[in-house]
Amino acid sequence: MNTVSADIPVQYLTSNKTMSVNCIDDEGVDDYVLITMFGAPWVDYGIDDLPNGERVHPPYSYGYHSAYTVTSRLTVNNQAYYATLFNRDVELGLFSWKGAKRPFHSDVFTINKAVVNETRQPVLYHTFLCEDAAGKTLAVEVFSLTNPESIYLLEDQLIIK
């Protein structure tokens, strides 16, 4: 059995690709094969958090905002399954007020939502996974709720595999 492998540069992981192979078997018969490979899900995500509550100062710990307002916009393009993950019990309802959405081609989701910090966490994690047959795209946003004046972004990653 013969195999073909290639390293695909990161900037092309979300693009559909076509591979053409010209093969000649043991009997000299020439075969041409065209293979379409779909890209990993394409995601454009932006989220802003603003304080929307009083400042809580627990003993022996970081202070945090008791509430915040989340404004978010997610644009996705590809036939994939989408789900939010690892959010420390804070569900933002990104996919039309649900935590996940079955495969669809493309859509835009927006939220503008006030959230009470019932978990009393000094950070907000917002992570979601987009997965299709070609790969996975993981978006990770981590916000600090400890600054008295504002909420600021600690981590913003888009991981494509």
Which helices and strands, and how do they pair?
Layout: E1 17-24, E2 30-37, E3 42-51, E4 55-56, E5 64-65, E6 67-85, E7 100-116, E8 123-132, E9 135-144, E10 152-160
Please compute the radius of gyration using only Cα atoms.
22 Å
Q: What is the helix/strand order?
A: EEEEEEEEEE
Mean pLDDT: 82
Beta-strand segment tally: 10
Oligomeric state:
single chain
Strand content: over 45%
What's this, in brief?
The protein is mostly beta strands.
Describe the 3D structure.
The chain has 161 residues and is mostly beta strands. 0% of the residues lie in helices and 59% in strands. It contains no helices and ten strands. It has strands at 17-24, 30-37, 42-51, 55-56, 64-65, 67-85, 100-116, 123-132, 135-144, 152-160. Strands 3, 6, 7, 8, 9 and 10 form a six-stranded antiparallel beta sheet that branches. Strands 1-2 form a two-stranded antiparallel ribbon. Strand 9 and strand 10 form a beta hairpin. It is elongated, with a radius of gyration of 22 Å.
What keywords describe this structure?
161 residues, mainly beta, 6-stranded antiparallel sheet, two-stranded antiparallel sheet, 10 strands
